[in-house]
Please model this.
Amino acid sequence: MASETDRSKGFYHQTLETMSSDERNQYLSKELQKIVSHAFRNAPAIQKKFASAGLKPQDVRTVKDLEKLPITHKHELASLQKKDPPFGGFLGVPMERLKRICMSPGPIYEPEDTESKNDRWTQAFFAAGFRRGDIGQVTFSYHLVPPAFWFEDALHRLGCIATPGGVGNTEQQVKMMHDLGVTGYIGTPSFLMAVAKKAQEFHYHPQKDLCLKVGFVSGEMLPESLRSELEETFGMIVRQGYGTADVGCMGYECFHKNGMHFPYNCIVEIVDPETGKQLGPGETGEIVTTVFDEVYPMIRFGTGDLSYYTDEPCPCGRTTGRLVKILGRLDQVTKVKGMFIHPGNVDNVAAKFDEIEDCQVVVTREGHVDQMTLKVILAKGILPSNDLAKRIESAIPESMRVRGKVEFIDRGTLPEKFSKIDDRRKWE
Ligand SMILES: [Zn+2]
Model:
């Protein structure tokens, strides 16, 4: 691997990743029509889904048309599979065509070939900075669950070599990285941290004795502070991706790390959890995905994760929208003045002010109108002031799209562990 390799530029599929928005709409509509017709013919669960909405395949021709269909939620899959084993009626090809069947907690079984999902992960790996000749250590589990297999295949598609580290065995893994000159890391951020600690025990200098240049992390939150620590320790690029075992990749960061690009070959909607309607840029809702995967054609698959997206241009040249941030799980949301508020939104406000140590949203109801108060615990040495309260109040709608009042409180007035949203509304 040449040391001057440019990991910041380029594409895996330039034409498809850089289409204009009209071209993209046409492309997605065409792919959607193909997968809808395939799934309707081959997967009984998809037939049922259309029938329940009184629809025929020709009624769903564009991304917007997807709104007519009900969402199949991740939490329903285990029981759907139990009723109609082994795949709940979602298998879209004869069993012989499968290459692998994985099992995730639930249990949920995932039938796979090696096409649709792995192509999307390969886009993610290229965008993260993996290049031909890299040796990538895969530290996800090789037992039961699918990710390690996807990621090995993505490495192979890019002309890279995989070292199958699997989970744990930190000592041997660090030795392997050192002895083989491993340049790429694939795993959780926390295991990469464990690698750094173990390297120190071996008296390895993380940059001189190890050769890590690029990392793809997933499966855990990646706070910016942790990312910079990892990047500085190893002198490497660390980028993240988002996906689930059922549908695979739904987003990945490019060099500019300003959100996770949608892969070009799937449809990601952000959906109002109450109405099932699509939301626009900046609006928080559930991540719902349709994949062009003939084997397991999930159409409107609800992840239960909350996010919002942007369609602002990205300096990398990719023209797909980007998930800005995964805010958490749908079951943690509260609706205030018609808007969904999530603990992640509350943390976003706090993150904008060095003066804030912690905060909590309290929702009450006065005269049939929701009231939102942000209770703020100030950092040490900061005194409450009207000016500060005003500045925080003007930042609240940026993160929550709802106005609220600020109230300063002492640390001691809240328990050690408190929920970020305290909903005190009574509905009698
Ligand atoms: Zn980009």
